[in-house]
DNA sequence: CAAAGATACGGAGGCACCCTCCGCTTCACA
DNA sequence: TGTGAAGCGGAGGGTGCCTCCGTATCTTTG
């Protein structure tokens, strides 16, 4: 829902927001996206203000707390991720749909650097973004999970929260070389564990065994 | 290896370390354990010094960096965890041994609060503790894993590093209510996924289904 | 035991960042 | 174009990090 000039509120007339305020807010957001993606969620807010060409006071007026700013930056991203479920709803194999969504999530974290920290907030703070993310992502996973369970292909004793936690946890380790392939492998194991084994498919299912015998000891 | 007074180095005589230095080092360690366990690894070092009844300079002389202090506190803990493997080596079922060790690790994290952060370092820094932990824990897991693989009960395409990463990742979410049972459930799923299914055991194996149908949507 | 070094102590001080507050500027509206 | 509401910037007070060095304390030697 965007406010458009000329879209008169017939109720008490409201002053049009000042142009410079709008502009500055946008600049700060843009700068924050860059800075957070580069330096993680601990990055200096003064650096953000500087990069936005704005006083520190201005930054704090628009986003009173660090979380507010973080939230504004990553809310859209989380939404995008959760909407990915729509595309997968029509897939034939519900287990595979879940697997694919999880992989997309990993891809997402790999691309946007601040993402994993944003997701981690889900289980660590009670900010607004946390609530939002938890809700959206839980529902997203829940719908995939339900379908697979209903089809009798997946055990029913795992909640979406559980799965989300596992996903986020694994992605949180995202700064070692090779983390991505490792996580993908783990997710496959995971999904295999969730699956209800039928006699016909009782064989090990692994998507792409990284290397037949993984390197041991460094 | 502890230095004992009277245990003469026959080489160049070495001055006995000053008593106050030894005492202070110990005090700082003790204080740090408390403070880190309470406030996490970001806790104020000045608070540590204060609690130790020592100047900040003294703290820094003994432990030049935050990591040094953290390492000194948690090295012992990690060692203890890795030694737990010895007890499990004799177990009959190698898969179960692995499962048990993982559970112990979770228990460990639940008890010592700074632990999960210490473990997370493993994949995030290149501190000495990180190297030490990685080495010890990788070997610990590796030995359990190898046994299960050799017995033909577990797939071979997962490395100890992978598993460690998954474990740490899941534990990293350790500050929400109910995390522990959630993680335990996840670990069961995980081990199930690792297992090579035989026709005889092709049934879902779940240790203790938390609640038959886990709460969905909050 | 006393003197002499060697060693360690403490905390002041410089730096970076956090966040608040308020005098000054700029904008929307009339 | 005047005017007050809205917004701006950055000084300033607070906290924590870490370094540096004058002073205090300990070990050793005579």
How would you describe the overall organization of this protein?
The structure is a homodimer of 218-residue chains. With 218 residues, the first copy, chain A, is mainly α. Helix content of chain A is 62%, strand content 0%. Chain A has helices at residues 19-39, 45-52, 56-62, 66-89, 94-111, 115-121, 128-150, 160-171, 179-194. In chain A, helix 4 packs antiparallel against helix 5, helix 5 packs antiparallel against helix 7 (128-150) and helix 7 (128-150) crosses helix 8 (160-171). Chain A is elongated, with a radius of gyration of 21 Å. Mean pLDDT of chain A is 82; it is low at 1-11 and 199-218. The structure holds a DNA duplex (30 and 30 nucleotides).
Quickly list its features.
homodimer, 218 residues, mainly alpha, 9 helices, 62% helix, 0% strand, elongated, disordered N terminus, disordered C terminus, DNA-binding
Helices and strands, with pairings:
The structure is a homodimer of 218-residue chains.
Chain A: H1 19-39, H2 45-52, H3 56-62, H4 66-89, H5 94-111, H6 115-121, H7 128-150, H8 160-171, H9 179-194
Helix pairs in contact in A: 1-2, 1-4, 4-5, 4-7, 5-7, 5-9, 7-8
Chain A binds a DNA duplex (30 and 30 nucleotides) through residues 15-21, 24, 44-47, 49, 54-58, 60-61, 64-66.
């Amino acid at each position: 829902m965007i406010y458009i000039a000329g879209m008169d509120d017939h109720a008490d007339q409201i002053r049009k927001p000042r142009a410079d305020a709008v502009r500055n807010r946008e600049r700060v957001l843009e700068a924050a996206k860059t800075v957070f993606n580069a330096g993680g969620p601990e990055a200096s807010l003064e650096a953000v203000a500087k990069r936005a060409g704005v006083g520190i006071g201005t930054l704090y007026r628009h986003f009173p707390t660090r979380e507010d700013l973080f939230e504004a930056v990553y809310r859209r991203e989380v939404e995008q991720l959760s909407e990915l479920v729509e595309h997968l709803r029509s897939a034939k194999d519900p287990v595979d749909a879940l697997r694919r969504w999880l992989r997309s999530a990993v891809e997402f974290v790999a691309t946007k650097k601040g993402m994993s920290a944003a997701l981690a907030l889900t289980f660590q703070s009670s900010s607004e973004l946390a609530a939002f993310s938890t809700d959206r992502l839980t529902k997203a996973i829940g719908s995939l999970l339900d379908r697979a369970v209903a089809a009798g292909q997946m055990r029913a004793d795992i909640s979406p929260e559980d799965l989300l936690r596992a996903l986020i946890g694994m992605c949180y380790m995202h700064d070692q070389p090779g983390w991505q392939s490792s996580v993908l492998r783990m997710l496959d194991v995971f999904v295999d564990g969730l699956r209800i084994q039928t006699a016909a498919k009782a064989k090990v299912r692994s998507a792409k065994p990284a290397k037949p015998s993984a390197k041991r000891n460094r």
